[in-house]
Each structure stands twice: as C-alpha cells, then as structure tokens.
Fold this protein.
Amino acid sequence: HAQRLFKMKFGVIAGTSSCRSISDFLENQNIEYSVHLKKGYLFSECSKITGQISYFFPAGKKVGVCIGKKRYFYDYIIDLSHPFALQIKQKMNMLAAHKILRYVRRQTQYSNFFYGPSTMFFSLYGQGYTKVLSLLGHKGTYDFIKALKNFDNPDRYLIISRSIEPVSFGVNYKFDPDLLFDRNWFDSILEKYPIQAVLIKDSGKEGMTEEKIRYFSQKNKTVFMLKAPINNHAMIFDSLETLKKDILQKVMKHEKP
C-alpha cells in the first residue's frame, strides 16, 4: 500500500497552559506541528515560531498564517489562545470554521458577571465603591480605567493592579504568571489597602477563578467578574481529551492508504 507522501500538519496557536498538554500529545503521536506564540516564553523543545500573527488566510485546502513577510501552511489550526485573546480569534474568522479546532474553557458559574469593563464600572460606581483591586491584567485594567475617566473624577479612586506589562495609574505590582492564586500576596494587599471590590477575569478552572471568588467573598469583598464573549466560528471543544480524539481521527482518516 502506498504511504501518503504528505503528512498532515497542524498550526497550534499558543497562549495558555493547555498548550503543553497538546504539544506533548502531538509529539508522542508523531504528528507534525508548529506552535505560534507572541513572545519567546513557554517551551524549549517544541518547534515554535515566535512573532505576532499579521493575518490568517485560506489557501486551497490548507490554511495560511502570515507573520511579517513569512507564510506558514497547515491542514488545521488548533486554537489554544486565552479566552480574552479576542483579536487573534477575530483574525481567524477569515478561515472556514471547520478548519479551526478551538478549545474553549468551561465558563465559571457566578452571578455578578459583565461582558465589558464599562458596564462593570457602572455597577461598581452604582454601589459607591472607590477602592479597587484589579486582577484584570494590563488590558482589562486599562479599559476599566478608561471607562472610569470618562464618567468620574479618577482622583476619587484607589486602584491597585497586578500585570505583566505595567499599568501607569494607581499602584501597580508585577505579576508572576506562575503564581495564579497567590494567597500571600492577596493577604498582604488586603492588609495594606482598604479594598472594597475586586475585579477578576473568568479564566476558567485553569485560572483558578472559583478559588479567587471564594477567597475574596470570604473576606467580604464584592467580586466583579469579566466574561469573554465566545467566538463560535470554529469547531468548539470544551475538553482537551475530546480535542485530542478529534485530531487523531483526522490524522487516521488522512493517512489511510
């Protein structure tokens, strides 16, 4: 029987912890792939391509990824980007939905949630809170502060934030991504500042979202949760196991003589 000459190749869009699990799986199954990431952190051993993706484009039966002047071609895109990485998902809308295998984390069940920083700000404003701890990261905190400045005098507010990229408003701490749930840091912040409200993102189980809600609620702080809208232009998988099964099926079907 003739061996297929062209092996299937997957383009993995990284950005979360789940990437390690998927790249190990592809490695073990001897499936060809490349991992795309914005900055050069994450792993050493896998075939990674660093750089901001300019755009995606359909290319016959393949899908293309363009970075600067370089183009990469794949049979499918495996999207493991963070729930809040909305722009990269927007760029993928150019491709046929069945070409995108997207892992979507299960959302956290919590009633005080918002889809945008400005509606979140209005709710907070309505309750009279001015002393805030933001765990929304650089962009989320920045968007929240922008909403605040549009509608109120920012001098009335104390905003404590932590982020990888610094926030220039209020008091900002450097965030170590390995310490998702940093109880000692949370304890010290609550002792140091008279925090009334805490802003968090729904980063699902991986982001220890429920633990954060429980911790701050026990300290009698009101928790406001930001949700990411789900981009459904893709094949959606809510567990890595079902995603892996689907990848295997596609490879087997392709490599049948």
